[in-house]
Amino acid sequence: MSEVIEKVSIRITINGQSYRRKVEPRLLLVQFIREELGLTGTHVGCDVTYCGACTVLVDDKPTKSCTLLAVQADGCEILTVEGLEQDGELHPLQKAFSENHGLQCGYCTPGMLMSSMALLAEKPDPSPAEIRKGISGNLCRCTGYNNIIKSIQAAAREMAG
Amino acid sequence: MYPAPFHYHRVDSLQDAISRLAELGDSARALAGGQTLLVWMKLRFDEPRHLVDLSRIPGLSDIRLEGDEVCIGALATHAEITKSAVAAAIPSVYDCGSGIADGQIRSRGTIGGALGSADPSCDWPVLLHTLDAVLTCTGPEGTRSIPVSELVEDIYTTILQPAELITGIRFRMPPENSAGAYCGFKRCAPAYPTASVAVQLTLEDDICSEVRIALGSAGLTTVTSKEAENILRGSRLTEANIDKAAQAIVAAAEPVPDQRGAEDFKRAVLHSLVKRAVDIAMRRCQGETIGVHREYV
């Protein structure tokens, strides 16, 4: 393993800001986000594409960032939980999670929020069954999910105005 | 967890991909969506020295209808297929695609990757058996067609030659009097199915004139049974002969006991799923609209 691995130049836009870096090919997107850029809102849970804590939006598509190489995201636009707040105002989803006790320990919350963003973009008025399906790639070990579902419904109402 | 170090090669044409893979030999892997390969690499089940990233090759993710033939590019994601006009026209395609893992994995995983991984738990290969799909594959020796039933030699092993890639999937649009269903049983959304079943039936009056049944997660490769199909072909679909056909194909299965269940449990699940899938396919043939039927526990 003494052979030199050539680093790869990438340009990734995260929460509207463009970053250029030279990265090792094996660097995962989640490590790029957390360790290179210090955006630690995106969490690593299981690290094997199961729990969804690392979910971010890559070109609007929900993606588990533990299972994507940073080099694969070259040229993409990424939204992480840090990008939800606008001008010091929480996003309606964040507010709804807070008001409806949609979190306890909070570890799964960034991933839940990002999956919810993708869900509401596709289905602005989802049924409880559609919400369950929409967040089925995100595990929460505290809430029992019911308050998360309530939170997403409340946010959907708020966002519909 | 980090994968072992590797060199990264991005290609922008099929020809580049094939020549790069041929030149790098055994130590290279083709990367599509990475939803299987990257997990294996992180767990160090596989430590390739080179990854050739196919995802920027244009034109390999088209999903279209050519006459009565459905053509799906190998790089089409599970989500793209599920949202396509093809899935709207063929309910079993929607059943299958919408039940694969979860939204995040569906937005990156590809149908070509699922086929190429030769994992008996992947959903598409099971469904494609019942649609008699043919794969277009291109390698250093040129392009050839491989029936999906001939692709997999053994678990995780295809008959593809070095540097040969699946580029597309083709199958005939089922006629009006033909319908299918795909039923799976999973412990939770991101998990591979404990068992899955695909069925395609053609009914003429009340007689089943053609049938295909295939089982996933039921052995080292997709399980089929001529005996089960012969029980149904040419007959009226009664509860008794559906049960007999289910017994025949479940007898041909060799489910591996693992954390998803013991062998007997898996056989029992497969048996119920065959009956459920035949029932849904039959009712769809008769014009009934039946949504996705996938169980979680």
What does this structure look like?
The complex is a heterodimer of chains A (161) and B (297). Chain A has 161 residues and is an alpha+beta fold. Chain A folds into two domains: 76 residues, Ubiquitin-like (UB roll) (Roll); 69 residues, [2Fe-2S]-binding domain (DNA polymerase, domain 1), CATH 1.10.150. Chain A is 32% helix and 16% strand. In chain A, strand 1 and strand 2 form a beta hairpin. In chain A, helix 2 packs across helix 5. The N and C termini of chain A lie far apart (58 Å). Chain B is an alpha+beta fold and 297 residues long. Chain B has three domains: 47 residues, 2-Layer Sandwich (Uridine Diphospho-n-acetylenolpyruvylglucosamine Reductase, domain 2), CATH 3.30.43; 110 residues, 2-Layer Sandwich (Uridine Diphospho-n-acetylenolpyruvylglucosamine Reductase, domain 3); 119 residues, CO dehydrogenase flavoprotein, C-terminal domain (Enolase-like, domain 1, 2-Layer Sandwich). Chain B is 34% helix and 27% strand. Chain B contains twelve helices and 15 strands. In chain B, strands 4-5-10-6-7 form a five-stranded antiparallel sheet. In chain B, strands 14-13-12-11-15 form a five-stranded mixed sheet, sandwiched between helices. In chain B, helix 11 packs across helix 12. The radius of gyration of chain B is 19 Å and the shape is globular. Chains A and B meet through strand 4 and helix 3 of A and strand 1, helix 2 and helix 6 of B.
Question: What can be said about this structure in brief?
Answer:
Chain A is α+β, with helices and mostly antiparallel strands and 161 residues long. Chain A contains 5 helices and 5 strands, in the order E-E-H-E-E-E-H-H-H-H.
